[in-house]
């Protein structure tokens, strides 16, 4: 997997030495509550295991650590069966999530024949849903998923971004 660069970020493959910052970032409950598959608290051992390789059943996963030069690891963008991401709370609201996700989406469509990327978010995660809408994701349905951090089922909004929609939006993004 290659390293991706944006105007403000470096997105790179995970390394074992990322585990402490990774664990710290997702151990903030304000972040963890939105990360359906991750337990809370998320320990250093869990982070080490998670970064070591794709989880069982997800060998196609691409994981990019989001580095902000001078700040280090501030988040993660993963692309497997679904696009997922998180940023440390101190970096929310600065457009970094949109920037990082856009780079991964560009990378994915440039290297694959896939026609769509799928994603989902808690029904009340307005920030994530707004970011996905900005990228061109559209709602395709709803379901219930078990949140390990919240320890109960949570309604999820299912979304999809087609290659055609992404390419059409490229003209708007570049303008």
TrEMBL record:
A Pfam family the protein falls into: Acetyltransf_3
Single GO molecular function: acyltransferase activity, transferring groups other than amino-acyl groups
Chain ranges of the N-acetyltransferase domain: 9-164
Transmembrane annotation, as ranges: none
PROSITE patterns linked: GNAT (PS51186)
Stored InterPro entries: Acyl_CoA_acyltransferase, GNAT_dom, N-acetyltransferase
Domain of life: Bacteria
Official protein name in the record: GNAT family N-acetyltransferase
Organism: Devosia sediminis
